Amino acid sequence: MNKNQVIDTLNSLPEEFDAEQLIERIIFMEKVEQGMQDAREGKVISLDEAKQRFQTKWSK
Questions:
Q1: Would you list the DSSP string of 11-57?
Q2: Residue 7 C-alpha from the chain's centroid
Q3: Is 8 exposed, middle or buried (0-12, 13-18, 19+ CB in 10 A)?
Q4: Contact, 4 vs 24, CB < 8 A?
Q5: pTM value?
Q6: Cα–Cα distance for residue pair 12/15, rounded to 1 Å
Q7: Are 7 and 1 in contact (CB under 8 A)?
Q8: Taking the mean position of all CA atoms in its chain, how far away is CA 20?
Q9: Which residues of 14-24 are buried (b: 16+ CB within 10 A; e: fewer)?
Q10: For residue 6, what is the enclosing H or E element?
């Protein structure tokens, strides 16, 4: 994330907003950016594998 991305996010908000709204958007952007980086690096699993992990974890 860089300063320009934060400024763009700030500019996309209405004139009046809660600081929490800005923080939530910045965190969301950071998570999306991290997910995209993980995908570029091949750090992904298939949908079937994700379902299997979910079922294994929550079926206890």
A1: HHS-SS--HHHHHHHHHHHHHHHHHHHHHHTT----HHHHHHHHHHH
A2: 18
A3: exposed
A4: no
A5: 0.70
A6: 9
A7: no
A8: 16
A9: eeeeeeeeeee
A10: helix 3-12
60 residues of the chain, pLDDT tens digit each: 899 999 999 999 999 999 999 999 999 999 999 999 999 999 999 999 999 999 998 886
Q: Which amino acid is at 25?
A: R
| 26 token code pair | 């910045």
Segment (H or E) for 9: helix 3-12
